[in-house]
Design goal:
The complex is a heterodimer.
Chain A (H helix, E strand, L loop, with lengths): L7 H8 L4 H23 L2 H17 L11 H24 L7 H6 L17 H12 L3 H11 L5 H8 L3 H28 L1
Helix pairs in contact in A: 1-2, 2-3, 2-4, 3-4, 6-9, 7-9, 8-9
Chain B lengths: L4 H6 L1 H5 L5 H11 L3 H15 L12 H15 L9 H10 L7 H27 L4 H32 L5 E7 L7 E7 L4 E7 L9 E8 L3 E9 L5 E6 L10 E9 L11 E6 L2
Antiparallel strand pairs in B: 1-2, 1-8, 2-3, 3-6, 4-5, 4-7, 5-6, 7-8
Helix pairs in contact in B: 7-8
Classes of the chains: A mainly alpha, B alpha+beta.
């Protein structure tokens, strides 16, 4: 059987029967993506590899935690990767007893700006989806994009974002809310266009 | 604090980013647990937030990471029954751990030392004859010398076996990569399917924590088999000669090697504290 032809949910179904080949197919499909998200959060290749291993072993051990009725597999996997990475950062920060997150300027510097920053070896992965998300982010005002990035990839609460940026809490709440609504609108438009074709 | 639908929807974007403080997050999640409409909106918002992960610059993970992940999955998904090693192999592997793979010069040194020890023994025998009063003391020394000779003889024998392996036409070399338990560690395995015999040399292995030791594993399709403890010297070098312990069972195809940290001297099953791993094809 050619596992590369199976959908994500079909592979996940096979994982419930301990199908190692299905697990390998999922890793081949998304290993680089999970690693990249983790690397973006933790900023260290060794730690990002450990988090990636942890994420996939959780998928392997508890495939039933994925619920197809609540969203796509890839977004669920990305959520797990982001949350595990943030958990790691927080525990590392506690161990070191100081803040390890980069400054707000550094966060902004490493926001994605285009495909040229991708490793060419893996650039084809979900290329259309990634381009759409980047376009949706790029049209946001910089202050909204920064607040969202600090919250999602930096693991900061709204209050912490406000402190980091030296802005009132209400301002940060508005930036996050408007920014996410715009992003959802842009992605929804694309989704609707695709369905009408 | 309690959230109604209005408050929940006001916080939905922040919640989807994980940006609510603990108190608000609990109130939010308490509400969506009992409100289907808000729960659906929360799922949508979470889906959008998760897509932010698609925007990060893509980087290729190392090939060794896949080996580690697959090896670990095999451990978690394998049959419950594991086998240990036979007593003779524990002894042999302990001895073998002291020797370097293919170290011909080391073998020469061992041989010279063996000759020296033979000379010492002869001298001790003569002394024992002349000085009967000291015989008991000297006999203790002599026993130790015999033990050393046995060890040296076994070491040389094992070295010869390893040299045989290395020059086997079917020998396959694989590279082991360290995990965060041993990030700088690297290793090389030589394995001959024909002889079911191999050897591993590791570099930059940190000394194991107090009460723990490294154990080498042969990963077969059906189970992991211990090849015995890996001794590490003060330079971080670990060495072991590996033999397949058949035990009259079919373990399937050899698919990898791993080094784990173990609490027990002779673990029946591997811990998940992987220090090094590789796939074998």
């Amino acid at each position: 059987m050619d596992y590369t032809q199976l959908r994500d949910d079909e592979l996940m179904e096979r994982l419930t029967h301990r199908d190692l080949a299905a697990f390998e197919a999922l890793y081949d499909r998304y290993g680089d993506l999970v690693y990249s998200v983790s690397l973006r959060v933790v900023g260290d290749a060794y730690i990002a590899e450990d988090v990636t291993q942890d994420v996939f072993l959780r998928v392997w051990r508890k495939p039933e935690q994925f619920d197809l009725t609540r969203g796509k597999f890839v977004t669920w996997l990305l959520s797990v990767a982001r949350n595990r990475s943030i958990d790691h950062q927080r525990s590392a920060a506690r161990r070191l007893r100081h803040e390890t997150l980069p400054s707000a300027e550094e966060e902004d510097d490493i926001l994605p700006t285009g495909d040229e920053r991708d490793d060419p070896a893996v650039a084809a992965l979900l290329a259309d989806d990634r381009a759409a998300v980047r376009r949706a982010l790029e049209v946001l005002p910089p202050e909204q994009k920064l607040a969202i990035t600090l919250a999602y990839f930096g693991g900061l609460t709204q209050q912490e974002v406000a402190t980091r940026l030296g802005q009132p809490l209400g301002t940060v709440k508005t930036r996050i809310r408007l920014g996410m609504q715009k992003m959802r609108g842009a992605l929804q438009e694309r989704h609707d266009r695709q369905r009408s074709i | 604090m309690r959230f109604d639908c209005e408050a929940t929807r006001e916080h939905i974007e922040a919640w989807s980013l994980g940006a609510l403080d603990d108190l608000d997050a609990r109130a939010f999640e308490h509400h969506i647990a009992s409100c289907r409409d808000c729960a659906r909106l929360a799922d949508d918002a979470r889906e959008t937030a998760a897509m932010l992960g698609l925007a990060v610059p893509l980087r290729a993970a190392s090939a060794s990471l896949k080996s580690r992940v697959m090896a670990s999955a095999r451990v978690l998904g394998g049959p419950a029954e594991r086998r240990g090693v036979s007593p003779w192999w524990r002894t042999a592997s302990g001895v073998a751990a002291a020797c370097a793979v293919g170290a011909i010069s080391w073998g020469t040194v061992m041989q010279l030392r063996s000759n020296d020890l033979q000379a010492d023994r002869s001298q001790l025998r003569a002394t024992a004859t002349e000085q009967a009063a000291q015989f008991a003391v000297l006999r203790g020394d002599l026993d130790r010398t015999h033990d050393e000779q046995d060890v040296l003889a076994q070491t040389i024998e094992t070295q010869n076996e390893v040299l045989d392996v290395i020059f086997e036409p079917d020998v396959v070399w694989t590279t082991l990569d360290g995990t965060t338990l041993a990030p700088a560690a690297t290793g090389r395995c030589a394995w001959s399917r024909e002889k079911a015999l191999g050897a591993m040399i590791a570099e930059n292995l940190p000394l194991p924590p107090e009460g723990q030791q490294y154990t080498m594993w042969l990963i077969y399709e059906n189970e992991w088999i211990s090849a015995g403890p890996v001794q590490v010297d003060s330079q971080g070098r670990g060495r072991i000669v590996m033999r397949k312990f058949w035990g009259g069972q079919d373990h399937g195809r050899l698919v990898g090697f791993a080094v784990t940290l173990e609490n027990a001297q002779d673990p029946a099953e591997p811990s998940l504290q992987l220090a090094m791993a590789s796939e074998f094809r």
